[in-house]
Amino acid sequence: MRRTLAGLVASALVVAGCTVPAFAPRAEVEGEPSAAAPGAAPRWRACPEVADEVAGRAAPDMRYECARISVPRRWSASGTAATAGPGSGGTFEIALLRARSTKQRDRIGSLVVNPGGPGGSGVDTAVYLSFGPAFGGLPGTVTERFDIVGFDPRGVSRSSPVECVSDADLDASFGYDPDPESAAQFDGLVALNQRIGQGCGQRYGDQLPLYGTEQAARDLDAVRAAVGDQKLTYLGYSYGTLLGAVYAQLYPQRVRALVFDGAVDPRQGVVAASESQAKGFERAFDNFVRWCAGNADRCPLAPDARGAVTSAIDKARVSPVEGTDGRRATSGWVFYAVISSLYTEQGWQELARAIEKLDGGDPADVFRLADAYAGRNPDGTYSNLFDANLAVNCADEDEKPSRQRIRELQGQWRAAYPLFGPALAVGMLTCLEWPGRPDPYPTGKADGAPPILVVGTTGDPATPYEQTPALAEMLGVGRVLTWDGEGHTAYPQTACVTNAVDAYLLDLTVPREGLRCPAR
């Protein structure tokens, strides 16, 4: 459970921004109430079956309720339904789950959570966070004072999901060489991204910009109203920090307390953001290599873990190992196994063993790590995680470097960040070949909002630490909390971080300026 939760709230999509592994969308339940009309109170129903589906069981002393609300497909600048333009007059359904402790006392309100992505399920995350600290969830001091409310943003999982990328194309994308050096290889990746973009354009057309972050942030205010809170208390991880930051700019007077963990710098364009992730993953991989050298009893790749991993990817380019089901562990799948393992320090030993087994002819652990990252099910189907990720990221992004510029950066970043740079460069092809027009979000101060807690981890590969003070500075009311640890996101992993965040959520006590928490 702890490992699953860590993966759920701590992942990033190299192809086009930050994301998380997600679970398959839940099928509609027969007899489930229809979504409440915009502005109407939701109709909650008991839904213990969602906890069973997501985590295999309900958490002790927890009750689960679900509801659906309707939101305008397109919000106007004033925060009302738009009356003209694509999406006007239509609605999306937003799925909500409320986890409430049977030990609740002195209730403060609702803590709304988002795991990031874009594409991660807040419904799933609320279930996992309800399990308490023994399983990596929230402390009882929080769950006994707040309802934990998760929502799937528009286009994600249970909320009017975007579905336009075939399983075959996702297999091809993840399995593709992460550094296509020859012109033919590069052109093949361009063609794959063109096919994906064309398919989504044919299905959604001029509706594609409706999945952008500003529209989702306005949905977040509808969630706040639906749970009956005058002001929002919110915990956002990774991309969830961007979603929360946009909310704070749009509705500063409706903020009670916002925690942004694994911060995204909203002012970075796609080139700067991609290079930042290349640096972050390279740094995290160096940390893994050093750990390996100093822990040879637990790392079979010692003393040269970088050489072993690089060799494994190179071998997979020419002679991929075939699994018992006939699936081939190409260089792309090996690469994403590496990516997946860097989100938590616990993943380092798993990576070492997976590469060792791959060298012995067994790719099962490589596939397990990569599939967890990709959201690939054992039967070869995928959740809509990456469909939604592409729709949101490409709606947000108005910077589109040319193919020639991407090709140049591929070479430059190969020299600077040899393992991750090329993949981050060619990942920018995705939105370049995307057909929808952009709908960029605002990037300014949250004037009038109370202090906002921005948490950063020095060893974070996916949202490198440098973005933490940048987000705090942009908002103007940000207060930085630093964790000198490894992996993506920090709360609630150590007592120091947990105590500081809990005091802020419960009592609005802001940590002192410059507070740093030790790794352990």
Total number of β-strand segments?
A: 12
| Uncertain stretches of 5 or more adjacent residues | 1-31
The biggest sheet amounts to:
10 strands, mixed
Shape: globular
Beta fraction = 5-15%
User: How far is the first residue's CA from the last residue's CA?
Assistant: 21 Å
Rg from alpha-carbon coordinates: 22 Å
What's the arrangement of strands in the largest beta sheet?
A: 1-2-3-5-4-6-7-10-11-12
Counted by DSSP, the helix tally is 19
* Mean pLDDT, all residues: 92
How would you describe this structure to a colleague?
The protein is of the alpha/beta class. The protein is built from 19 helices and twelve strands. It has a ten-stranded mixed sheet, with helices on both faces. Strands 8-9 form a two-stranded antiparallel ribbon. It starts with a helix and ends with a strand. The model is unreliable at 1-31 (pLDDT under 50).
